[in-house]
């Protein structure tokens, strides 16, 4: 029995909402850095790192299908750590790649959390203290 189309659409909308919420703080912080300190490098870093990391995931998934040389997981995580986690998250969903390996997902979400904590420390905590 097929799932009703409404539920599939709702699930997709929730994924996009979650993605938007995860990106909100880094986007706001990057734009603030650009506006206040005239430093567009953070926004540029997230964009370039996300594109490169997305491409690494694509390449790894492609190579996994043909049993070729694979991209080392440490390299995927390095791309995420350098700011490419939004691209990695999109690639995971688009290619259905690295979504079931729990050890990989644990490191991935720790990197996302690290980025969120960085921006909380930079943007939110100074307001209280």
From TrEMBL:
Keywords: Membrane, Transmembrane, Transmembrane helix. The chain crosses the membrane at residues 39-58, 103-120. InterPro entries: DUF1294. This is DUF1294 domain-containing protein. It holds the Pfam family DUF1294.
